[in-house]
Amino acid sequence: xxxxxxxxxxxxxxxxxxxxxxxxxxxxxxxxxxGLTGTHVGCEHGVCxxxxxxxxxEAVRACLVFAVQADGAEVTTVEGLTPGDGALHPLQEAFRDxxxxxxxxxxxxxxxxxxxxxxxxxxxxxxxxxxxxxGNLCRCTGYxxxxxxxxxxxARMAAPATSAAAAAEAGS
Amino acid sequence: xxxxxxxxxxxxxxxRALLTGRATFVDDVQLPDMxxxxxxxxxxxxALIRGIDVSAALARPGVVAVITAEDLGDYWQPGPxxxxxxxxxxxxxxxxxxxxxxxxxxxxxxEAIAMVIAESRYLAEDALSDVVVDLEPLEPVVDLEAALAxxxxxxxxxxxxxxxxxxxQRHGDYEDALAAADLVIQRRFHYDRGAAAAMExxxxxxxxxxxxEELTVWDTTQAPIPxxxxxxRMLGLLESRVRVVAPFVGxxxxxxxxxxxPEEVLVxxxxxxxxxxxxxxxxxxxxxxxxxxxxxxxxxxxxAFSRDGKILGVRDFFFHDTGAYDPYGLTVPINxxxxxxxxxxxxxxxxxxxxxxxxxxxxxxxxxxGRQHGVxxxxxxxxxxxxxxxxTPHEIRRRNYLRDDVFPHTFQILFQxxxxxxxxxGNYAPALExxxxxxxxxxxxxxQARLRAEGRFIGLGVVSYVEGTGIGPYEGARxxxxxxxxxxxxxxxxxxxxxxxxxxxxxxxxxxxxxxxDVHVVTGDTREFGWGTGTFASRGAVVAGSACHEAAxxxxxxxxxxxxxxxxxxxxxxxxxxxxxxxxxxxxRSMPLGQLAGHANPLRGAVTPGTxxxxxxxxxxxxxxxxxxxxxxxxxxxxxxETALVKxxxxxxxxxxxxxxxxxxxxxxxxxxxxHGIGNAFxxxxxxxxxxxxxxxxFMDYLLPTSMDVPKVEMAHRETAAPLNPLGLKxxxxxxxxxxxxxxxxxxxxxxxxxxxxxxxIPLSPNRLFELLRDASG
Lengths: 172, 778
What we know:
The complex is a heterodimer. By secondary structure, chain A is an alpha+beta fold. Chain A contains 6 helices and 5 strands. Helices cover about 35% and strands about 15% of the residues of chain A. In chain A, strands 2-1-5-3-4 form a 5-stranded mixed β-sheet, with helices on one face. In chain A, strand 1 and strand 2 (about 15-20) form a beta hairpin. The N and C termini of chain A lie far apart (about 60 Å). The model of chain A is unreliable at about 170 (pLDDT under 50). By secondary structure, chain B is of the alpha+beta class. Chain B is built from 18 helices and 30 strands. In chain B, strands 3-6-1-13-10-11-12 form a 7-stranded mixed β-sheet, sandwiched between helices. In chain B, helix 5 (about 225-235) links the parallel strand 11 (about 215-220) and strand 12. The mean pLDDT of chain B is about 95. At the A-B interface, helix 2, helix 3, helix 4 and helix 5 of A face helix 1 and helix 16 of B.
């Protein structure tokens, strides 16, 4: 067995250091070593996207990355989307309001895929949203409400002043 | 001014936890000192086990135990027969249920042979290859018909045959129908295997507390209570000392109700024996081999028509692949047999099937649970008949729908709940017209012609189905008003994304006139509620929802009684409003429900004899029959004849699941079901080779539909209330995927009317459709 390797990284804004086996997957490191179980593992071969996290701001499949590769990186998981004060990120809010989740297992990975997508495409068309979502599998929803949730989030993030009105409408 | 919640779509109570990563799924359970299990699985489909050498694995650092069948002693028992065969005259049923670990023979690829337990999952997996299993390969059984030949190798020598069951059911006299027929059509149809493919794989974690003598098991099961009862029996524990928790579960779709999977039996046993918590989480590849699957059937079907397109009778012989074992009895083929009749007036029916053991993964219900096979056969027969008779597919259906005045309607054949097939209510013909209106009956053909002139080929498929839902035996619920004023609801079935935390809350909130967000629902924890069966057959909302309703009504009566006493007025003068009980016409004299709950549970003084403390009640609901949902699916596809790619342009569903509790959740169930059905129709197929090896056991090779493949489903809800439950509910969980293959086949043919294309198999794929198009082009 290879010797453990010291790594230091930032996870959800907090510095973390650990000695890990070189073969330890980032997904297992986050879930088992750090207890951040919001990152889910659906296939362990990089297809389903459930384990998607942000590494230095970009969506990455945590099951295809070793923890040692994240040494020095800034990692954000679903737990880090909000400051933890009970507020939801606009994407989370939109997924709730548009019924964009059923069992919710794939949801963290989808949220983490959509964060950089909306950053880079603040006003996406529906085909653009569908293409961006196509790397994440969902068995429950049939995707439609996820597409609509992402569009709703984009609209609210583009016009934050009207988000309360939109929320009222969506919840009515 | 009580608030209406049933029929509205509030945001879901469960979403905050799921969206913030705080929801606990089984693999999230981490306990001090926990060990991890991994399984040595057969890489042969059929073989004798000559020997197992675990010594090298045991010697590996970090490995704590390696368990084989021999180590289990008397604990090694074949699993229970979950669903006994219905009492059908002349039925043959040969039982062979799965075993915890293969002892002398393996019967499918992926069957568990040994369990390795180590300090980490990584170490446990390292040790798998240290276990040396000496297998003597046998000839595998793959083909359903060859399996029944006299010289076929036999999976279960004690049975002496690969025949798992032979069932004949009749309604009316088919021979008479045949004699009177103007047109008889005979065809062979194939419907091949698919995976349930829940995004969360299975997982089991167990902790044995030796001081409390209590076993806690976290399990991704759809049926926590039967799992608890079975484990208690097998382990010699009181049921009350076994707690099974199905926390958030990442999709079920049927296979998670199978019991017992070997891992469910072995992980708790290992935790007790080793005195340390043990967890096992399936990986995706294991899921493809070790989680049950569904589908392979071959039907030889015949339909007799009169000249005007009326169905006189149907005769169907089919083979059903039950895989290596048949613990789930005959639920799937009986669903196929019964659901074939659909919404149609079929005066004579002869249906006969043979269930066959093969060296493939065991078959148990997967969303739709065999219903789609029957629907596919019937709808295809109607389409072929329509073509022969010069009718449109819509017209032949119109001529055969059961009229709306025949309900309740009973057939002589037995359904999966052992009762005669019973349609409680329905109104079928208007759904077809509604679907055609949404598609645009005038505009579609014009558009089709216009595109055809451009060299583009679009087609329309419109089919009908019924779905028996909401069957018994029963579920229960307990409703409690807590001193905080919040309401707690506990029910026994598990939840896998259907929105039970919200739908049940709506039912209770409406009865008690409180906010939906103030109703806290617990499902799937046997410590919270210990009676019930499970989530299957689109029954959760119907059966458990009705129990929640009954329990809430009982609490409401208590609220009125205690409120009258506390407020010093007659019960008739008390009303509930906005979380308070008050004197009618005197709003100043009121008390919040929470405070009233304190009065119902006094620390001093006397409680009236014959009453129970607390604002709490438990109720059970068991319907006499299931309730029959129905609907029409219409799909518009575009076929590229060069590449055989098919695009789903539009998908219309007009469905009737009785009264809607939460229209948004219902729509989500339908949309998701259609996606599953689209997968089964054109993307997903478990491909086995002649050695019964699964060739595509990964998401790289087994294609689930993505956001690029599934269109927005345009929906219309019809609400024919079910008479057999207080809220008029019917189930909806499976409806989306049941007729999809049939609709798809009709649409592809409609797109290419110049070809003699007749689709008699599902799933298709671009490859397979390309072959069919080539053959049809001559």
